[in-house]
Design goal:
By secondary structure, the chain is an alpha+beta fold. The protein is about 45% helix and about 30% strand.
């Protein structure tokens, strides 16, 4: 895609799974515990803070990354071409 991503990059008070500083995109890869109510609430707060800092956050499940990587890559590519 021609976009550099930093892995486990510190953004504010958070560590993003993947961050593109030039594209303003943060990608989070979520395990099953992210569907638990408290974790989902924490994720929403975190996402709101990151968006206030000017980032767009995309979330994908571990399963999507492992078993449907074409979809994941298409979504990321779509972000950069909109």
């Amino acid at each position: 895609m021609g976009v550099d991503f930093l892995r486990q990059h510190i953004v504010g008070d958070y560590i993003a799974d993947f961050a593109s500083r030039h594209g303003g995109l943060i990608i989070e890869v979520d395990g099953g515990y992210h569907s638990e109510r408290q974790q989902a609430e924490n994720d929403a707060i975190r996402e709101s803070h990151l968006e206030q800092m000017g980032f767009h956050v995309m979330r994908f499940s571990n399963e999507e990354v492992l078993y449907n990587v074409d979809h994941v890559l298409n979504q990321i590519e779509k972000y950069f071409h909109e």
